Amino acid sequence: MRIYHGIQEFEKIKYPVVTSGTFDGVHVGHQKILRRVNQMARSKGGETVLLTFWPHPKFVLNPGSPMKLLNTFQEKAAHLKTLGIDHLIRIPFTQKFSQMTSEEFVKTILVEKIGTRQLVIGYNHRFGKNREGSFRYLQENGSAYGFEVVEISRKDVDHIAVSSTKIREHILSHQIHLANTLLGRPYEFSGKVVRGQQIGRKIGFPTANIEISEKYKLLPSDGSYAVQAHVRGTKKHGMMNIGVKPTLGNQPRSIEVNIFDFKNEIYGEELKVEVIKQIRPEMKFKNLKELTSQLLLDSQEARTILTEEH
Predict the structure, then answer these.
(1) Residue 171 falls within a domain, yes or no?
(2) Is residue 43 in some structural domain?
(3) pLDDT at position 158 over 90
(4) What one-character DSSP code corresponds to residue 237?
(5) pTM of the predicted structure, to 2 decimals
(6) Is the same domain home to 107 and 142?
(7) Residues 6+ apart with CB under 8 A from 310
(8) What average pLDDT does the structure give for the chain?
(9) Do 125 and 223 have their domain in common?
(10) Within this chain, do residues 115 and 262 fall inside the same structural domain, yes or no?
(11) How many of the other CB atoms lie within 10 Å of CB of 144?
């Protein structure tokens, strides 16, 4: 998959089959659209093109928005690659770009820059200034612009009521397993391993403390989780705690992963974590001994969950 950081980098290709959107999460609904795009392109001997907007339009149009994203751009690109997208165009979303009318978007980007032959959109897709563009507009004008428009109906992608918003709600309400069902894979995040207080090491549960640089990335609600950690090219089982450590008197919110049967030092390294299921919400214990006893139970439950998942 080729990635273009701006429409100006794109060079015209043979028979482009195009879709566009933010595709946050690249969830099972998105995947159905992308499978259709791939099928259409292959049947015509063409190539797939996905237009996405970065930063997310809500961050530009509403700078105070508290919304968090399911994917970083790098995560999104990796998922799109596995789904067979040939060309990913990252269009910088700015205030100026937001003022582009739907007609300008179609003529300038879809027709002149890309040479679109087929355009695939999800139901209720809107685009252009004030979201004025619609499927009806595209259907009425597509032939004049030289491309065919295909809409993926609501019943095709919404049979399980999937949406990025619903996935965010599940993640924040201690239901990561439901979010994973709608994503079609475990929810993930990555970060650098940094030094912590090393309390876990002292009580027999050493942890990798993870620092996330992308502040817009949505993290699961506070609690203990069964996870899989990608470390040095291998996938390891483990458990994770996210929270403020109330037993230690409330600390800054942190992410700590105890990787099972792993003793190597990995400070400064990147760690990818797949979150499988929550074990329990974060709790305050009377002392470290009580916390240690609970961590032993958590680790046993995490191993059971991960064995069953595998």
Answers:
(1) no
(2) yes
(3) no
(4) E
(5) 0.91
(6) yes
(7) none
(8) 91
(9) no
(10) no
(11) 9
What is the predicted pLDDT for the residue at 153? 65
* Domain CATH number, residue 44: 3.40.50.620
Task: Write the CA distances from 69 to 58, 86, 140, 189, 217, integer angstroms.
Answer: 11, 24, 34, 11, 5
- Cα dist from 9 to 53, 109, 137, whole Å: 15, 12, 28
Judge whether 256 counts as a catalytic residue: yes
Phi, psi dihedral angles at 28 (to 5 degrees): -65, -30
To the nearest 10 degrees (0 to 180), the angle between helices 164-172 and 176-183 is 160
Domain-ending residue, one of 126, 157, 188: 157
Any domain includes 164? no
Taking the C-alpha atoms of residue 277 and residue 184, their distance in angstroms, rounded to an integer, is 14
- 269 close to 193: Cβ distance less than 8 angstroms: yes
Which of the following is catalytic: 75, 151, 188, 256?
256
Please, what's the b/e burial string for 209-230 (b: 16 or more CB within 10 A of its CB; e: otherwise)? bbeeebeebbbbbbbbbbbbbe
Q: Are residues 140 and 271 both part of a single domain?
A: no
Position of tokens 């499988």?
276
Domain of residue 14 covers: 2-157
